[in-house]
């Protein structure tokens, strides 16, 4: 897992998938799955980066070249299995938001947007 | 602070501001500012919700009715002061991404998107 650094994304536009979740108690294979999904996401066409943090609430933002790349990742078999198990076992609540990043700026390059 | 629950946002489209950061060591007034900024954000026109977590990496996603509402919040005086101090003192690195949420689905309502 490497979601602990700020993703080095290109100039917008690109796609962000914001996945917010509340866990059920206990691990139940969650940590292993999460590491595997991040590893697998990095291999997909159009993957740009991933950022994640959990502090009660979990937030994972994955970045993709476009909506089609994000949609394709949603359909990858091993990921579909994980999504099903997430709904059944790991998540008490979750929300997925697919968004188009239109502006970005940061500490590295001063104000771009 | 109440960024520990999943924001109850309306049907898309709406605007998400994804703020990712790495802190400098020590508090230096950070916790108080963060609580105040969340309190202040909730009072702004077009505010829809906020979610945040920090685990090494900090991720805060605020949701707004549209880009204009998000841009207006960026210009609120007390927030401008906090942004300046953030660049100078609190953040070792950060990135802000402004995005348009186009699809959303979650546990509460089955698949919408």
TrEMBL record, chains A, B:
The entry's keywords: Monooxygenase, Oxidoreductase
Top-level taxon of origin: Bacteria
GO molecular function: monooxygenase activity
InterPro entries: Dimeric_a/b-barrel, Jasmonate_Hydroxylase-like
PANTHER family: ABM DOMAIN-CONTAINING PROTEIN (PTHR37811:SF2), BLL5343 PROTEIN (PTHR37811)
Protein name: Heme-degrading monooxygenase HmoA
Organism of provenance: Xylanimonas ulmi
Biological classification of the source: Bacteria, Bacillati, Actinomycetota, Actinomycetes, Micrococcales
